[in-house]
């Protein structure tokens, strides 16, 4: 009797899991409460996989032996509750796929910096000649790549939602870039639960595995004081030095692993800003552990192109620099963006607030921001927080308006920064859509 695999969510991770499940002999069914994109329907059809959209038919779901749910579906959703009540195992794509590959994985999580660190790690390993795949929250689904069986190493960007759905998965090398309050709506507004979710990345690691982490991060430090992991700890820091780990001095980043020393001048890094020094330390530590040549690491750190929608320089118009940081969907990410500004800044901010506390941005806003444009349906919280701090504050309902206003409010030598600190779903489809609309509006000026 074939085992029945039901997949909730017909997006990239769902379809990838369906293909791998089918290949491994499961009876597969995909159910999406929303619409499934046409290209995915075609792929499912080609593989002879049954699917439904805009509904969850209980009779076709509650007879599952195993369920993979997309990370976007909360544990509190009625269907997931029913499955758990029936004792049916609900896992993530990563947990399902890992059992079918012998590849080594590098798992990267954190509230911010994880995409940049993941892309940079992938870049370092690829340039170093490793047969490496990129998956998780980015790019082509991990399960899909495992079905095609292509890579020796995978670099995986893992959200806390993906980590919630793991049982046995363990990365050989784990990175926690940092932890700050985010997505608390999914964790009963309990920061402790969110922190615990992030640390699931290391819960199955053994003495042969490694945990790379930010030693300057308070939440990480507290967790490590109170809890144990078997993994070998490899810290990185801007302020402390380590015999085994990575650290920054005035000029350089230094990485000491197994008595091997790697040194690189900070001013040779392609990416600007203190947080990117940390991202570079984390990624280079992986490259060192996997024995990539030092000259290759240096070269790759200096030619890395960066990530779209993450402090991406768009255009300079009349000597005003426009910067797209649409990926900044929380306060901590906006903090990094403002911190890296060296000119007076017109800041475009707002969207769907995830329980944000804007207080920590106050010193940076006072120091760097000359004007604020609120781009959201409900901007009350932002206006209350910064109304008295900046010279000008104005609301916009569309990206075109926001960018035109920004042009009017800026003068030579300024920067216009889109760094919303909020989710995008009130006015846009996604942070990518928001970033693309910003770039389009700038190009139309």
From TrEMBL:
<feature type="domain" description="Mur ligase central">
    <location>
        <begin position="108"/>
        <end position="287"/>
    </location>
</feature>
<dbReference type="GO" id="GO:0071555">
    <property type="term" value="P:cell wall organization"/>
</dbReference>
<feature type="binding site">
    <location>
        <begin position="110"/>
        <end position="116"/>
    </location>
    <ligand>
        <name>ATP</name>
    </ligand>
</feature>
<dbReference type="GO" id="GO:0008360">
    <property type="term" value="P:regulation of cell shape"/>
</dbReference>
<dbReference type="GO" id="GO:0005524">
    <property type="term" value="F:ATP binding"/>
</dbReference>
<protein>
    <recommendedName>
        <fullName>UDP-N-acetylmuramoylalanine--D-glutamate ligase</fullName>
        <ecNumber>6.3.2.9</ecNumber>
    </recommendedName>
</protein>
<comment type="pathway">
    <text>Cell wall biogenesis; peptidoglycan biosynthesis.</text>
</comment>
<keyword id="KW-0436">Ligase</keyword>
<keyword id="KW-0961">Cell wall biogenesis/degradation</keyword>
<dbReference type="Pfam" id="PF08245">
    <property type="entry name" value="Mur_ligase_M"/>
</dbReference>
<dbReference type="InterPro" id="IPR005762">
    <property type="entry name" value="MurD"/>
</dbReference>
<dbReference type="Pfam" id="PF02875">
    <property type="entry name" value="Mur_ligase_C"/>
</dbReference>
<dbReference type="GO" id="GO:0009252">
    <property type="term" value="P:peptidoglycan biosynthetic process"/>
</dbReference>
<keyword id="KW-0131">Cell cycle</keyword>
<feature type="domain" description="Mur ligase C-terminal">
    <location>
        <begin position="309"/>
        <end position="422"/>
    </location>
</feature>
<keyword id="KW-0963">Cytoplasm</keyword>
<dbReference type="GO" id="GO:0005737">
    <property type="term" value="C:cytoplasm"/>
</dbReference>
<dbReference type="Pfam" id="PF21377">
    <property type="entry name" value="MurD_N"/>
</dbReference>
<dbReference type="InterPro" id="IPR036615">
    <property type="entry name" value="Mur_ligase_C_dom_sf"/>
</dbReference>
<dbReference type="GO" id="GO:0051301">
    <property type="term" value="P:cell division"/>
</dbReference>
<keyword id="KW-0133">Cell shape</keyword>
<keyword id="KW-0067">ATP-binding</keyword>
<dbReference type="InterPro" id="IPR013221">
    <property type="entry name" value="Mur_ligase_cen"/>
</dbReference>
<comment type="similarity">
    <text>Belongs to the MurCDEF family.</text>
</comment>
<keyword id="KW-0547">Nucleotide-binding</keyword>
<keyword id="KW-0573">Peptidoglycan synthesis</keyword>
<dbReference type="InterPro" id="IPR004101">
    <property type="entry name" value="Mur_ligase_C"/>
</dbReference>
<keyword id="KW-0132">Cell division</keyword>
<dbReference type="InterPro" id="IPR036565">
    <property type="entry name" value="Mur-like_cat_sf"/>
</dbReference>
<comment type="function">
    <text>Cell wall formation. Catalyzes the addition of glutamate to the nucleotide precursor UDP-N-acetylmuramoyl-L-alanine (UMA).</text>
</comment>
<dbReference type="GO" id="GO:0008764">
    <property type="term" value="F:UDP-N-acetylmuramoylalanine-D-glutamate ligase activity"/>
</dbReference>
């Amino acid at each position: 009797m074939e085992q029945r695999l039901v997949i909730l969510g017909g997006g990239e991770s769902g379809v990838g899991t369906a293909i791998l499940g089918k290949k491994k002999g499961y009876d597969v069914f995909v159910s999406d409460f929303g619409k499934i994109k046409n290209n995915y329907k075609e792929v499912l059809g080609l593989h002879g996989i049954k699917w439904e959209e805009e509904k969850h038919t209980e009779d076709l779901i509650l007879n599952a032996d195993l369920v993979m749910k997309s990370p976007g579906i909360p544990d509190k959703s009625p269907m997931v509750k029913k499955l758990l009540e029936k004792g049916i195992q609900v896992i993530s794509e990563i947990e399902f796929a890992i059992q079918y590959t012998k590849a080594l994985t590098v798992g990267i999580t954190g509230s911010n910096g994880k995409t940049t660190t993941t892309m940079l790690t992938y870049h370092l390993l690829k340039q170093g000649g490793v047969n490496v795949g990129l998956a998780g929250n980015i790019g082509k689904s991990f399960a899909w790549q495992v079905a095609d069986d292509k890579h020796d190493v995978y670099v995986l960007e893992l959200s806390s939602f993906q980590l919630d759905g793991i049982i046995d998965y363990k990365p050989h090398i784990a990175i926690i870039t940092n932890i700050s309050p985010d997505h608390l709506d999914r964790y009963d507004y309990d920061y402790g639960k969110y922190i615990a979710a992030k640390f699931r990345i290391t819960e199955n690691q053994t003495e042969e595995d490694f945990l790379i982490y930010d030693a300057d991060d308070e939440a990480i430090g507290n967790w490590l004081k109170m809890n144990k992991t078997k993994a070998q700890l490899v810290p990185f820091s801007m302020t402390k030095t380590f015999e085994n780990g990575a650290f920054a001095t005035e000029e350089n980043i230094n990485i000491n692993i197994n008595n091997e020393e790697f040194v690189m001048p900070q001013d040779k890094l392609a990416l600007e800003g203190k947080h990117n020094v940390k991202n570079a330390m984390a990624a280079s530590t992986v490259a060192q552990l996997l024995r990539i040549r030092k000259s290759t690491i240096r070269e790759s750190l200096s030619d890395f192109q960066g990530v779209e929608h993450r402090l991406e320089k768009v255009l300079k118009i009349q000597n005003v620099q426009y910067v797209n940081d649409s990926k900044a969907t929380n306060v901590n990410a906006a903090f990094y963006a403002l911190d890296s500004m060296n000119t007076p800044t017109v800041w475009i901010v707002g969207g769907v607030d995830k329980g944000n506390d804007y207080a920590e941005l106050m010193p940076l806003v006072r120091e760097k921001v000359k004007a604020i444009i609120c781009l959201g349906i409900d901007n009350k919280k932002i206006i209350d927080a910064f109304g008295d701090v900046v010279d000008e504050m104005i609301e916009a309902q569309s990206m075109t308006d926001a960018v035109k206003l920004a042009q009017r409010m800026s003068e030579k030598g300024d920067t216009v920064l889109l760094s919303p600190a909020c989710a995008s779903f009130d006015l846009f489809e996604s942070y990518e859509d928001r970033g693309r609309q910003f770039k389009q509006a700038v190009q139309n000026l």
